[in-house]
Amino acid sequence: MEARVAGQSTSRQATAEQANRRRVTLTRESILEAALRLCSPEGGGQLTFSRLGKELGADPTAVYRHFRDKDELVLALTDLVIQEGIELARQTLPDGPSDDWRAFLAVTARSVRTSHLARPALAVLAAARTTASPAETHSVEQLISVLHRAGLPVVEAAECYRALLDMTLAMTQYTAAFSILDRQAQEQDEAAWAVKYGMLPEDEFPLLHRSAPRLTELFRDDDTVFALVLDTFLDGVAVRIERARKA
Amino acid sequence: MEARVAGQSTSRQATAEQANRRRVTLTRESILEAALRLCSPEGGGQLTFSRLGKELGADPTAVYRHFRDKDELVLALTDLVIQEGIELARQTLPDGPSDDWRAFLAVTARSVRTSHLARPALAVLAAARTTASPAETHSVEQLISVLHRAGLPVVEAAECYRALLDMTLAMTQYTAAFSILDRQAQEQDEAAWAVKYGMLPEDEFPLLHRSAPRLTELFRDDDTVFALVLDTFLDGVAVRIERARKA
DNA sequence: AGGCGCTGTCAATGGCATTGACAGGCACGT
DNA sequence: ACGTGCCTGTCAATGCCATTGACAGCGCCT
Question: Residue A46 and which of A103, A110, B204, B234 are 20 to 30 A apart at CA?
């Protein structure tokens, strides 16, 4: 019995062995779920096929039966995250179509950011891709509608939407990329900055010297910086709305 | 003669062989130069040790004698690009300290963006790192000074600088990441969008339907979108300056 | 009962960063 | 002149990664 050809002996004994390592049945959904888990900071914060295989209790390459390549997987995941972001915004916003354009835009942007930051690893991977998810279409229509009702011409409202969303995604991904870094690199950066701001000769850089404390606070406090950018951007939108009303 | 121990036979024949593959002498500068070349779209747009080795005519691992790891190399490269950006801004701006804060900010942001976009591969790699390059200190002081003279309190001016720069870097890196993608992925994305915007039922999404042409134009025309964001942001800064003056 | 396709497994490939052992050469001191 | 030792390039090997092709079980349809 032991004399069987070693490589092929997967018929008898295998049945017993496979009692443990049962051939798991994967579905598109179970894979996406596991992948999402891996992308969160608690899940290790890295999405690779081997980790995914382990998480699923299956061979890493089994995933290829459901997604042509990693890119397709990432695209599908991004779609989920976008839906989640929209959902989050919906919950935060009042039901009826509000006329407070500023709140609407701010909540939308922050929701998108929040849902992406829950999976930094995915945010980094998804960086460049756009999904054109049907889920968001309705939200976009609403967003443009709010701006239009506020006084902006339709096309300008659309431009505003595009600008807001791209800015938000870009800054979010920027934050995500940093949060993925290992402690060492993060601390290295921080140390470099501290030194830089600490050693500014007051006579040569008077203003920088005075703002050093604040800038140090702001160092990689990306959420605050994002809030700053968003606020300023929205002030700019207000100006545009004013201009449009007068014209 | 042929009976020599194969692995060790590098003494005689090697002298002849090495006439071709002369032991190249690397310097920090020659490496940085070559790496920068590789990062540009013409240079292949990908920075790896093996490509770098080939570019230098040396063994890939020779680079480790000059940079501890890839991260350190990227940091050094980023420094160069930042300097280049500052230089570019200096050339574009009038010499004396101008009082046109808006032009100053716009030119600075665009210069940073331009110099980074000349090496998309590097922009992507550098994503998360900050260099605290001494080269930029003077520029920052000037930037804050311009805003301060315009009427902003020092700390708020510093916040503004931080916001503007982070926004610019984030959006630039976002663009760079897309430009790195292979044609297939880019076209795939574009097709998805075209379909999406082409098939919008007018009765359900009236506004989106009307703005579809503009949104299609804007699709991944990242430079225009950046211009939009920057403009709106600067409008917002103007508001803040007004507010500060009145107070 | 037979066949076919769906899906998991396994082994292999090629690219990547990184490491440790080795070796040539140059500068220094004697 | 002659060693000694560091600086720096080379080579082979490691380990992680995505991806592929050959194989095999299982269920469904006929």
Answer: A110
